[in-house]
Write a structure and sequence with these properties.
Number of helices: 6
Radius of gyration: 20 Å
CATH architecture of one domain: 3-Layer(aba) Sandwich
Number of strands: 15
Shape: globular
CATH superfamily of one domain: NAD(P)-binding Rossmann-like Domain
Strand content: 25-35%
CATH topology of one domain: Rossmann fold
Length: 317
Amino acid sequence: MDHGTAREALVIGAGVSGLTTAICLAEAGWSVRIRTKDLPHDTTSEVAGALWGPSFQEPMAKTMAWTNASLADFTALAGEPGSGVRMAPALTVSTMPAGDPPPQARSIPELRACDPAELPPGFTSGFRAVMPLADMPRYLDHLTARLAEAGVPIEQRPVASLAEAAREAPLIVNCAGLGARDFGDDSVRPVFGQHVVVANPGLDLLFMELSTADEWTSYFPHSDRVVCGGVRVPGRWDRTPDPAITDRVLARVRALEPRLRDAEVIDVVTGLRPDRPSVRVETERIGTAQCIHNYGHSGTGVSLSWGCAHEATKLAG
């Protein structure tokens, strides 16, 4: 790439949305820089459960399209050694009666309804499938390496305002996540999450309970560890791990999977999901710059990452 003549873009934020968008812009011929408050391993993305899956957020038609677009990218990434992504066998269950999957779920690979014998006690319906699962520390390393190959620097220097960023580049992309509040969007709110990480006793199948409750059962096995959840606490800013939540998470997963009962607890990690009434991917003029917003993904930032990054790149022209 000829950086002297390439169009210049500044991406704000180095979570999964910022990194992915920067990659798409660079590969489309833009000369890209990233400025960020937190480096990739210090963002909420680092502690994400990171299962690609359906999004039920507004704008519904667009989030369905973005999720499906991301599936193609993650499927390709699963074939790349060292990407941190694999196509994992999955069991999703519910206490709701069995029914046809919603339209958002119909693109899930190898989706089929469970036989009653496949369901754990206490659940009345479920599906088997194969779904992309990202080991986030390794996946963020993969994205960072891909950016380095494309000549995209990541500078740990917070952006005070979009107006400041607009003075630095003709194209700015706001992937600030929860930080978008600092740029004037009060509709972005934190949703606290906490995962308990245990040593992997040999699990391969991932488990997800579909629930509208604030606590549910999930575990995501990676090569050396299992990330167990889950919980959502809307409006909580304090990221201090809650020992009571840890105890409840462990009690749920150990009741479900006997091999986890003696698994050593390695870590307890927390993060703040950037919740918003609808995902924001749109463009506006700020000073002399074009600003593309790409944030508000709540708990499905990984699932939407490639689709939204492709959309942002298309908006950039």
